[in-house]
């Protein structure tokens, strides 16, 4: 079935470092793709999304491009801050359904 | 500001107790979801409701039931709590449809401990 695989981490970076969190997907067709973020002690919130191939989603300095050739949706940020410390989840709707299936999450810690 | 609220942030219960977790959304969404989140396992779907009184089992429904009597409220019920149900429980809602409509809005979570 449709699924996402993301690097599991944890990832530890210094402030202002470049961030990449890898996400690859398996799906029939071209589903929408999502990145969610979970800050400590909170629920998930949508970070960015892309609804078709070659779309780039962006928000708060984060970007991800929907690449059908490599079935990937990697999350990037050029200069991370301490406040970006969180768990990041990649997700897609399986089989074109109204549900979402999530990756296992990648914990990011940014040190000053 | 759109909102999904959950009745408790932290809950401690005893083995064998009946536990109710409540979720309310103010966005008039048709779809509502219950997940549990465990370290190393990510989010796993327990139940999904696509309309009042309608429900669908998710990936791990055993030991749980749900109730949706009103559109805005979706309850998760642990009929007889067990220690392996100690977890973070997350509720979410979304509009019907696909593509961009798959975006889900999450509550803050309830951390349940079963002793």
Overall pLDDT score of chain A: 94
Count every helix of chain A, treating DSSP H or I runs of 4 or more residues as helices: 0
**So what's the overall shape of chain B?**
globular
Gyration radius over CA of chain B:
13 Å
Query: Which two chains share the most extensive interface?
Result: A-B, 24 and 28 residues
Unreliable stretches of chain B (pLDDT < 50, length at least 5) are none
Distance between the termini of chain B: 37 Å
Element pattern of chain A in H and E: EEEEEEEEEEEE
Q: State which percent range the strand residues of chain A make up.
A: over 45%
Question: Layout of helices and strands, plus pairs?
Answer:
The complex is a heterodimer of chains A (112) and B (115).
Chain A: E1 3-6, E2 11-14, E3 19-21, E4 23-26, E5 33-38, E6 44-50, E7 56-59, E8 62-65, E9 75-77, E10 86-92, E11 101-102, E12 106-111
Parallel strand pairs in A: 2-12
Antiparallel strand pairs in A: 1-4, 3-9, 5-6, 5-10, 7-8, 8-9, 10-11, 10-12
Chain B: E1 4-6, E2 10-13, E3 19-25, E4 31-38, E5 42-51, E6 54-57, E7 64-70, E8 73-78, E9 87-94, E10 105-106, E11 110-114
Parallel strand pairs in B: 2-11
Antiparallel strand pairs in B: 1-3, 3-8, 4-5, 4-9, 5-6, 7-8, 9-10, 9-11
Tell me about this structure:
Chain A has strands at residues 3-6, 11-14, 19-21, 23-26, 33-38, 44-50, 56-59, 62-65, 75-77, 86-92, 101-102, 106-111. With 112 residues, chain A is mainly β. Chain B is mainly beta. Chain B has no helices and 11 strands. Chain B has strands at 4-6, 10-13, 19-25, 31-38, 42-51, 54-57, 64-70, 73-78, 87-94, 105-106, 110-114. In chain B, β7 (64-70) and β8 form a beta hairpin. The N and C termini of chain B lie far apart (37 Å). Classes of the chains: A mainly beta (112), B mainly beta (115). Chain A binds chain B through residues 31-32, 34, 36, 41-46, 49, 51, 89, 93, 96-105, and chain B through 4, 31, 33, 40-43, 45, 48, 50, 58, 90, 92, 94, 96-109.
């Amino acid at each position: 079935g449709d699924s996402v695989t993301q690097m599991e981490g944890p990832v530890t970076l210094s402030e202002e470092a470049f961030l990449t969190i890898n996400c690859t997907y398996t799906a029939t067709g071209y589903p929408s793709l999502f990145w969610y973020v979970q800050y400590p002690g909170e629920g998930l919130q949508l970070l960015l999304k892309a609804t078709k191939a070659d779309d780039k989603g962006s928000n708060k300095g984060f970007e991800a491009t929907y690449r059908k050739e490599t079935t990937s949706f990697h999350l990037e940020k050029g200069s991370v801050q301490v406040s970006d410390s969180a768990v990041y989840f990649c997700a897609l709707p399986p089989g074109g359904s109204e549900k979402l299936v999530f990756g296992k999450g990648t914990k990011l810690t940014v040190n000053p | 500001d759109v909102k999904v609220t959950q009745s408790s942030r932290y809950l401690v219960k005893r083995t064998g107790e009946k536990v109710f977790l409540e979720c309310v959304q103010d966005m008039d969404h048709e779809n509502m979801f219950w997940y549990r989140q465990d370290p190393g396992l990510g989010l796993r779907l327990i139940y999904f409701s696509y309309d009042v009184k309608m429900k669908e089992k998710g990936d791990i429904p055993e030991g749980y039931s749900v109730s949706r009597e009103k559109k805005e409220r979706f309850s998760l019920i642990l009929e007889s709590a067990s220690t392996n149900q100690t977890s973070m429980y997350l509720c979410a809602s979304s509009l019907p449809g696909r593509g961009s409509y798959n975006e889900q809005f999450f509550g803050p979570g309830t951390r349940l401990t079963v002793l």
